[in-house]
Amino acid sequence: MENIHAVYNGRFDSLNNIKISPLSRAYTFSDSVYEVIPFCNSCTIAFDKHILRLEKSCNALSFQVDIKSISIEINELIKKSNLKNGYVYYQISRGTDVIRSHLFQDDLEIERFGYALPSMPIPSPISAMLCDDDRWGKCNIKSTSLLGNVLSMNKAKSLGCQEVVMHRDGFMTEAGASNVFYFDSSGVVRTSALSENILPGITRQILINALEGTSYCVQEGKCDIEDFNTSPCIWLTSSTKGLLPIKNLIGTDYVFQENYEGYLEISDFFKSAMQSHLEA
């Protein structure tokens, strides 16, 4: 892709012109965090929530950042991109070492990098693979340490899948790049309760809030993967996918009920909630 607008340590340029040191701790240690901020009609969606999560991730790694300046930088990047609908990928690392070392210097300068891309078309229902959750133990931090996700998702890709649904000891955690919801056999909407193994997804929370007070109020807790065998509908949530149903889940007896009424109604509640975030 050409003419991708980007920013590095406050300098705006084409992505092709931005150079990052191979001694960046993002490269050598995954000592970095990131955020993905969607925008529609040039307006960010749930911007404050994304920035707050980015700040929490930085605090978890003891990064000293000026979150107000970062917010301005992200909005400026969106403006310079001239994109109407898209998303910003924004990454913050501890900085660049003089030479690679596990022990970092206390005076490293925080490294900031981001770029803006147009939105991709939301795909039709996808296939996924059930797998063990082999990621590190603090997935609630939006770290760039994603090797576990990468290996699992590419194994799933070899089987014709676009995602994975992970579990630990038979209880669902989340997907490789999304949170997971499903209807159980009683028609109750379920998702995993937040923990160190679960990223607090912004779209996840928007959906939960949208369903409060409806007949589809979400039940958070421990989700047994055996539930998938009798579920009529499993779906993903993320900032770039919105709501995305799973049509096939390898490793289970799941049978997707296309046009399931409950999911269609939930989708309408979600669309209304997203619209209110755009108008806020």
Summarize the structure.
This protein is of the alpha+beta class and 280 residues long. It is built from six helices and 14 strands.
Layout: helices, strands, pairs:
Blueprint: E1 5-8, E2 11-14, H1 25-29, E3 32-40, E4 43-44, H2 47-60, H3 67-81, E5 86-93, E6 111-118, E7 126-132, H4 147-157, E8 163-168, E9 171-175, E10 179-183, E11 189-192, H5 202-211, E12 219-221, E13 234-238, E14 242-250, H6 261-279
Parallel strand pairs: 7-8, 7-14, 11-12
Antiparallel strand pairs: 1-2, 1-6, 3-4, 3-5, 5-6, 8-9, 10-11, 10-13, 13-14
Helix pairs in contact: 5-6
Helix and strand content put the structural class at alpha+beta
- Unreliable spans are none
Shape: globular
Strand fraction: 25-35%
How many separate helices? 6
Please report the distance between the alpha carbons of the first and last residues: 33 Å
Measured as a percent range, the helix fraction is 25-40%
Main β-sheet, in a few words?
A: 8 strands, mixed
Q: What is the succession of H and E elements?
A: EEHEEHHEEEHEEEEHEEEH
Q: Can you list the strand order of the major beta sheet?
A: 9-8-7-14-13-10-11-12
Mean pLDDT: 96
- Tell me how many strands there are: 14
* Rg over CA atoms: 19 Å
